[in-house]
Design a protein that fits this description.
Strand order of the largest sheet of chain A: 1-2
Shape of chain A: globular
Number of helices of chain A: 4
Structural class of chain A: mainly alpha
Radius of gyration of chain A: 13 Å
CATH class of the largest domain in chain B: Alpha Beta
Number of strands of chain B: 19
Shape of chain B: globular
Number of domains of chain B: 2
Strand content of chain B: 15-25%
Oligomer: heterodimer
Order of helices and strands of chain A: HHHEEH
Radius of gyration of chain B: 24 Å
Largest sheet of chain A: 2 strands, antiparallel
Number of domains of chain A: 1
Structural class of chain B: alpha/beta
CATH architecture of the largest domain in chain B: 3-Layer(aba) Sandwich
CATH superfamily of the largest domain in chain B: Alkaline Phosphatase, subunit A
Helix content of chain B: 25-40%
CATH topology of the largest domain in chain B: Alkaline Phosphatase, subunit A
Number of helices of chain B: 19
Largest sheet of chain B: 9 strands, mixed
Distance between the termini of chain B: 59 Å
Number of strands of chain A: 2
């Protein structure tokens, strides 16, 4: 299993726990293509909470999430689990 | 056995509390239990942090240190990223000092902390229970400590509803907005079931767990006072309210009557051997005018607004509570209304926008002079009555994160950062705003029926709670235990024990700084992924 796959799996476990009290209905199990806003019904405050949860679960500190969430000074429209995993990979490797 | 019960009352002030505990014609005593607490205990005004704001002030209560030491200054951190603002919230990991929850746990005392700001994510180094405040319902389970407590509350507390008790960002924003009469009443009513939810959790934990230190914070006091101050301040309450005004007065009284009942029940459950303390993070008063600080700084030549091209993004940017400025031509500005302060832009290297580092003192003195020169055109009175320099008011390792200058306005109001003229306008109606003096009260075994005693400092709360728990007070706490709160017998039998300095242990300890090679590798990977230019 590649590092990104391992991070995707860990993110899916985190997100299943994270959204368990939400009224989200997914057509299929979470996968790398699952998107935060379109599929999981995230709002902006949920994204802030998710960044905290990721740092807690992955043992990260002061991760520059603005690089993930913004592009050319604008917030990105949505993010997939796979995109988050790819972003996290170097930070997770450095923290290991 | 619960030895110490701490009830936080956000924004509570004696201006209102004195009214609620006296016999008012046609109303009676709204808070009869609090009346007995005030008559049988000791109380003092409590001076808040230099900017009397919820996050820094409650963090000072939780750490016994000022913001320059604990590092929390505001609700949010905002960075201008060009077209948009990147927001992050302060959380428990930003508190750079050991909290009372950790200190007490280290000294073998079990704690419960309910609804306190910046207790999420829950730190792992406590023995007890944390249900954090200021967290949306959807995230409460994950931030409750221990995790199983959330399910226990669901199963054992009748009517437990996270949606009713938790923080709703859209609703909370209304605290500082101008609302219609109907919305204002709805806003006050929204807090009635909310406080009952927190009361039920406190009651459940106190009954079933009896932690040594039981602490719960009720924050409806602050929220209601922001929007309904004119129905609570005896100087402003309508003499013979009718219609909507009567309805507003009634619902405010209902809130405080309910609160009195919750407090009585918790004090009774804690038992006659417990000591009970009440504190607020700041007080309250009336604000009569609005100072549009960035507009003033523009008039004074320190600031230039960004051009608004009318696009959707530009409008969203304008509406955000973060100043939208032309950074190349701005030397001093206010970042957020809640900061009530001014940042001075100092060039990091030659050619950068901002003033030269060597000009800082002179520039700042001139700015202070200019701020003091703002006068009420009718009375000639100064509108900005004090300007606090950060090195004098926020000493400590986090001083550099404080505003260069913190403003004290003549009505204690918070500034506006909107691009409107004129710079100063009268409010249509007085609005509630924070006053530096909150409340600190003690009641119960060993507490003197001393009535009102000398002014105390917000950092005294931490030392006092630790003293009440019977544990030593760390030597680096900034506060003192108020002797006047206690009977002479209690004081002589229980001298204050000074202990070793606090220890800051983090469950997720900040890792060692990366070495240059690791940093380079990471930047390369981020560039490859397209996250960095």
């Amino acid at each position: 299993m590649s590092n990104t796959d391992a991070i995707v799996n860990k993110l899916i476990v985190l997100l299943e726990d994270f959204t368990q009290d939400w009224d989200t209905e997914l057509d299929s199990a979470m996968n790398p293509e699952t998107r935060l806003l379109a599929d999981l019904g995230f709002e902006s405050v949920d994204i802030i909470q998710l960044t905290v949860a990721i740092e807690e679960d992955f043992g990260l500190h002061k991760t520059p999430f603005d690089k993930l969430l913004m592009n050319n000074g604008r917030y990105v429209d949505d993010l997939s689990i796979g995109q988050i995993a790819a972003f996290l990979e170097p930070f997770v490797a450095a923290a290991a | 056995m619960t030895r110490t019960l701490f009830i936080g009352l956000d924004g509570c002030t004696f201006t209102v509390l004195n009214e609620m505990t006296r016999d008012l014609p046609g109303i009676g005593v709204t808070m009869p239990f609090m009346k007995s607490v005030m008559e049988g205990g000791a109380r003092a005004k409590l001076r808040s942090t230099p900017n009397p704001l919820t996050p820094p002030a409650w963090t000072s209560i939780q750490t016994g240190k000022g913001p320059g030491q604990h590092g929390v200054f505001d609700f949010i951190r905002a960075e201008d990223k060009g077209g948009e603002v990147f927001w992050t919230l302060y959380d428990s990991r930003d508190i750079d000092s050991e909290t009372i929850w950790s200190i007490a746990s280290r000294k073998k005392k079990r704690i419960a902390a309910l609804n306190f700001p910046l207790t999420a994510p829950p730190p792992g180094n406590v023995d007890g229970f944390i249900v954090p405040g200021f967290i949306p319902a959807k995230h409460l389970r994950r931030n409750t400590y221990p995790r199983e407590l959330f399910e226990q509350m669901k199963q054992n507390i009748a009517g437990f509803d996270p949606k009713e008790l938790a923080w709703d960002f859209d609703n909370e924003k209304q605290a500082l907005e101008v609302l219609s009469p109907e919305e204002t009443e709805k806003w006050v009513r929204y807090h009635l079931p909310r406080e009952e939810q927190w009361f039920k959790i406190a009651e459940y934990i106190l009954e079933t767990e009896k932690p040594d230190l039981m602490a719960v914070m009720f924050d409806g006091t602050d929220k209601i006072q922001h929007q309904a101050w004119q129905f609570l301040d005896p100087a402003l309450v309508p003499e013979n309210p009718q219609g909507w005004e009567k309805s507003m007065r009634d619902v405010c009284l209902e809130y405080f009557r309910n609160l009195d009942g919750y407090i009585e029940r918790l004090v009774t459950l804690a038992g006659p051997d417990a000591q009970v303390f009440f504190a607020s993070d700041h007080g309250f008063t009336a604000s009569y005018e609005v100072l549009r600080i960035n507009s003033l700084l523009e008039d004074l030549g320190y600031l230039k607004w960004a051009v608004n091209d009318g696009s959707e993004q530009a409008l969203r940017r304008e509406a955000s509570d973060f100043a939208n400025l032309d950074w190349s031509q701005t030397t001093a500005y206010c970042r957020t209304p809640s900061s009530n302060g001014i940042h001075i832009r100092v060039a990091e290297k030659p050619g950068d926008p901002g003033i030269k580092p060597e000009d800082y003192e002179q520039f700042r003195d001139k700015l202070i002079q200019d701020l003091f020169s703002l006068k009420d055109p009718d009375s000639g009175e100064q509108i900005i009555v004090d300007v606090l320099k950060r090195e004098e008011w926020f000493p400590g390792p986090h001083m550099k994160h404080a505003c260069d200058l913190t403003l004290v306005l003549r009505d204690n109001g918070f500034v506006s950062i909107r691009d409107y003229k004129p710079a100063v306008v009268k409010r249509p109606n007085p609005a509630g705003t924070h006053h530096p003096d909150g409340i600190f009260m003690a009641y119960g075994k060993g507490v003197a029926a001393a009535g009102e005693v000398e002014l105390r400092q917000i950092v005294d709360v931490t030392s006092t709670l630790l003293y009440s728990l019977g544990v030593s007070v760390p030597s680096d706490l900034e506060g003192e235990v108020p002797q006047s709160f206690f009977t002479s017998e209690h004081w002589s039998e229980n001298p204050v024990k000074q202990g070793a300095r606090t220890r800051l242990e983090r469950s997720n300890e900040a890792r060692e700084e990366m070495d240059e090679e690791e940093k380079k590798k990471m930047i390369e990977q981020l560039q490859m992924l397209g996250y960095m230019e």
